[in-house]
Predict the 3D structure of the following.
Amino acid sequence: MLKIFYGEDRIRAKNEIERILGNNYEVIEGSELEPSDLPNIFLGASLLSANRKILIRDLSINKPVFEKLPDYLTSPHDIIILETKLDKRSNTYKLLRDKIEIKEFPAKIDPNANLVFGIYNTAKKDGKKAIKDLEKIKPNQDPMMFFGLLVSQALKDFQQNQGTKEKKALKELSKLDLDLKSSKLSSWLLIESFLLRLSSL
């Protein structure tokens, strides 16, 4: 069995590797291999078992070795090659794609990622809705980083409009900055309080 896994979601890829190979497998760094190493890896037997379980990492960056891969499709061992990226234009990929399983593990896209940027604008109209949106993103956000984002959005607002409301928002944010540094209250609680006040400035 030979499979190639690639993509940025290493956690999902690792879970799938362990599901197939178990927890006890050999790990080989593909970048360190020579073409002469391949017969031993793909065809050689282990002293303990005729069937070896092997994970090879980043083989495709080692082009002279990666190009030899189609010669070893009949390996009796369970081998998974793990890549971060895979060049789908390469001849090796084209030779392998119909003969073995090649599976991508793309990075997960957070469906709430765009909410982060909209919370400030929502809060200007509806503080309660902004807090509901904030609840969705809190688990993946640092409050101080989020505060920095609020400041940058308030500054953009001020550059575009320079009205009384925009000035008040900046003053409130400077107070919030002091509170975040000195208050014993939760950072998120202070940020929520600001979001509620923003619509009535």
